[in-house]
Amino acid sequence: MNNSITMTLNADELILSALREDISSEDVSTNAVMPYYQEGTVNLIAKQSGIICGLYVFRRVFELLDRNTRVEFYFKDGDRVENKDLIATVTGDIRVLLSGERTALNYLQRMSGIATYTSEVAELFKNSKTKLVDTRKTTPNMRVFEKYAVKVGGGHNHRYNLSDGVLLKDNHIGAAGSISKAVTMAKAYAPFVRKIEVEVENLDMVREAVEAGADIIMLDNMPIDMMKEAILIIDGRAETECSGNVTKENVAALTEIGVDYISSGALTHSAPILDLSLKNLHAI
């Protein structure tokens, strides 16, 4: 999402859908007070400190309403902003500035909140070999934005969607009949370039996953002592991932176990927004 081509391919349709959701026929409030074209400008201001993320999306909202809208940024994605910082100025048709305000802020606040929360969790991984990764627990139609925000915050992306990799969870194993059968079937079906990950909940399942030839073994909701024993059983024969109720409050203890990855749905489903505002709109 660092360039306009990627944005156009992946995000324009989603942004337009969000705009249509907010403007089903017309912006009655704006049309009432501004029935004609008038150029104006408005300031994007931080109302709390955090990591800014989604500036291109913010700008794209206004560009899709009017390609002549101009946005000047004083920060870039990944920068830290402080309360009262002037982040950007937006200049163009006042009607566009008013009608696009909420949608643009919704994206920017949400993405900046995720980047900020992720950066706080990622800080706990600084002296660890373990990588912090996200999950598919994203807001519908927001995944491309939310996973980008995780990366900006210093995290890593797990698979993007169901087409992106093989992850055999408890219900897949139940459908196949066993871990061994599920892995065998996955190897026969999936292209050889796809890694096969298996979710396990106890040590017997760990042993079965190793013997079946899983590439990655996900230790799901295990007590720490059990995870330590699981690492010894796996003994480097597969990559390892820890998952289940991972938050910044408990992640420090988990990094000491020595798993390769720790996945956290909280990065996307529990991050609070970063408070931002468009202020001081006036005609020019």
Write up this protein.
The mean pLDDT is 94. It contains 12 helices and 12 strands. Helix 9 links the parallel strand 8 and strand 9 (216-220). By secondary structure, it is α/β, with parallel strands linked by helices. Helix 4 (55-65) packs antiparallel against helix 5 (94-122) and helix 8 (179-189) runs parallel beside helix 9. It has a 6-stranded parallel sheet with strand order 6-11-10-9-8-7. It has a 4-stranded antiparallel sheet with strand order 3-5-1-12, covered by helices on one side. Strands 2-4 form a two-stranded antiparallel ribbon.
Layout: helices, strands, pairs:
Layout: H1 4-10, H2 12-22, H3 28-33, E1 39-46, E2 50-51, H4 55-65, E3 70-73, E4 80-81, E5 86-93, H5 94-122, E6 131-133, H6 143-152, E7 166-168, H7 170-176, H8 179-189, E8 196-200, H9 203-212, E9 216-220, H10 224-234, E10 239-243, H11 251-255, E11 261-263, H12 266-269, E12 276-283
Parallel strand pairs: 6-11, 7-8, 8-9, 9-10, 10-11
Antiparallel strand pairs: 1-5, 1-12, 2-4, 3-5
Helix pairs in contact: 2-4, 4-5, 5-6, 7-8, 8-9, 9-10
